Write the structure tokens for this entry.
Amino acid sequence: MVTADRPDAERPDRPGGDAPRRYDVAIVGAGMAGASLAAALAPHARVVMIEAEARPGYHATGRSAAFWQETYGGPAVQPLTAASGPWLDEQGFLSPRGALHIARAGEEGRLDALRHAFAAAGVVLEDRDRAGLEALVPGLRAVWTAGLAEPSCRDIDVAGLHGFYLRAAARSGADLCCDSPVVGLDWSGGRWTITTKGDSIEAEVLVDAAGAWADEVAALANARPVGIRPFRRTMVPLLVDPPAPAAMPLVEEIGGSFYFKPEAGGRIWLSPHDESPSPPCDAAPEEIDVAIAIDRLEQAVDWRIARRERPWAGLRSFAPDRIPVYGFDPAVPGFFWCAGQGGFGIQTAPAAAGMAAALLLGRAMPEWLHGIDPARYDPSRFRA
Ligand SMILES: Cc1cc2nc3c(=O)[nH]c(=O)nc-3n(C[C@H](O)[C@H](O)[C@H](O)COP(=O)(O)OP(=O)(O)OC[C@H]3O[C@@H](n4cnc5c(N)ncnc54)[C@H](O)[C@@H]3O)c2cc1C
């Protein structure tokens, strides 16, 4: 647990000479997970974010599909998404979108399963018949006969949110060290010595918010990896003819084989919903996944592809049970997991950071997180 509480965010101790700078908390990774947690912690502790890249947000955070959707990630993730929604909305990071899960004849059972999975959480999912689908997605091919609308789905301003957290953290005194890959971690005398490419930093608590590299960072700390595995996902921007209506919902095939949503200028962002295992890396799209995406789109709608724009890919990193991991490692002192945010790390960031900050500071969960049980996300579940 972090021992400090410094409302006026003192600057880190500089013991003089070449001695390492000292912080209460060092966060490895300044993507959405690291930045949101830094913003939550910095009013109470001396915080540093240590980022390998020249700028934060270069990996998964900068490559998302940018939506907030309660059913995405499953029932264990939904409480974090739902708790984050009101704040994201108040701050202006969400804008109207809606989602539509589409199915072929004979697949109605899958729609029912989705509805049942989220019934207890009260997520609104409304039946749509063929006429209802056509009204929302002009040009939808005749094989798509049933659907479920999820009106609460929103677009999310990812860059705006990430920038907000970085600025909030900085205002409260947090430091950000970019171009600083962590290459060594040593625990002694009740603190970590963190070796980066060109520096040495000390901290009482180390937070592993390293995304696809979370297990590698854990290994540097001699913590047992929990089994975070990165999977590549591809996004293909396309200009389509006729142009995609701006008010069209996010359209998702109920079996999880593609989704697309409208973007500026009549474009769509299309994904084949690929999930190819990958080592942690600077992910790049593969031509086969782009071709699969386009083939699936052509089976969904009768639109012509007027222009293919530059595709991108990113890594979504999951724990073995696909539930994110927040909490102190059960065996390694001062090592806190903030990993496995999969395909929902943007939409869950406010609640996840609030919960992780409460755990780190040894405080009760704030009132706005009352529906969330931190035990569900604790890393000790992998140590049975
Ligand atoms: C194609 C795609 C679509 C997605 N769509 C959505 C969506 O619509 N909605 C949603 O909520 N989520 C979505 N996601 C998921 C979301 O992007 C991630 O869950 C989120 O960005 C994870 O944030 P992070 O900070 O954990 O990871 P990252 O953004 O990857 O940040 C981790 C950081 O750690 C740094 N790092 C790693 N190792 C070290 C080291 N040794 N030393 C220093 N720094 C290190 C890396 O450089 C990196 O910047 C999508 C992801 C992808 C790939």
Residues 52 and 181 are 4 Å apart (CA to CA). The radius of gyration is 22 Å. The chain has eight helices and 21 strands.
